[in-house]
Every structure is written in structure tokens, then in C-alpha cells.
Amino acid sequence: MNGRSPGDLGGRLLVATPLLGDSNFERTVVLILAHNADGAFGVVLNRPSDMTDAVVAPEWAEHVSAPAVVFIGGPVAQGDVIGLGRGGLRVSSPIHPDLGGLGTIDLNEAPTDGTHPCDGLRLFAGGAGWAPNQLEDELREGAWWVLPSVDDDVLTSDPDSLWVRVLRRQRGDVAWFANHPLDPSQN
Question: 141-164 pLDDT, tens per residue?
Fold first, then answer.
């Protein structure tokens, strides 16, 4: 048993299918941070912005994984910054046991000089949220694939290819969608 309760998508990836039809989430890979009766919340892993991490959290800049920019975590509360890190003393809330120590980082508490508070850090402006049963409805409509995460997904140095890489490592028809053109009329 992996510690996951039935229906709990925490720690899993939502990968946008071509059916999604929402420009906020086209070809996105979302890590679900919380999923319960109150809804779901996650962050988009493959939407780097042009804003550097040093502007948002200068005291954490040396700990941020490349590319050292703030990612657009989703359309909800983009004025709030979420830090996700792996290992070290500063990981305050582990996301899920399957994710090997990945958890939230309290960005309000500066890292201690001379220590490595985490083994990698990513900053997200905002997140993606779903009301109760909203995500389940989208799943029934075929808007998302629910897939497992691997170590490199959250802190990848190549976020632009994440959607394709996650799909290619799947079996069967899902892997085939990695070849789906951005504009199907160009096929």
C-alpha cells in the first residue's frame, strides 16, 4: 500500500488532455498538493515566468533550482508565492509520502547562513484550485490524465518539455498523445 486513500490525488500529476479547452491549462502539468472533500489545489509545474526568483525571495535565491525564475502556479491568487522544496531542515509540510520528502517551504523564514535548507527549491506565483467535485467532473469529462510523478518532475531544469516527457513515459494510448501537435489543423 502506498499510503494513498482511494480518491485522494494528493502528490499525483494532472496532465492536460487536448480536450481541456482552457487556455490557462493548455499542455500543463499540475502537481496536486491537496485533495479532499473541500476541493483540490495544486501548482502548474511547466509555466516559467520572466520574473527571477531574486526579485520575489532574494534570501532564497541561491537555493532555487534552475531555471531560477518564478513559475506561474495557476490563475488563483497569483500575488501569493508558494515554495516547494525537497529534503533539508526547512521542508515544513510534506506533500505526499510517495514524493520523497517534497514539501512546502516557509518563505517568510530566511534560510540559516551556511546551511542548505533544502535540496532544491521552486517558487510558484499562485496556484490552481477546484471547488468540491469540480475536479472530479473535469476528470469524468476527459480533461485531465491522472499520472504518477517522478523525482525530476517538480524541480526539472527543462520545464518546457515536461508535458511531452510525462506522456512519453506512460504506456499505451496516453504515450501516443506526446506527439499531438499544438495546432491539430497543422497535422
Answer: 999 999 999 878 999 999 999 999
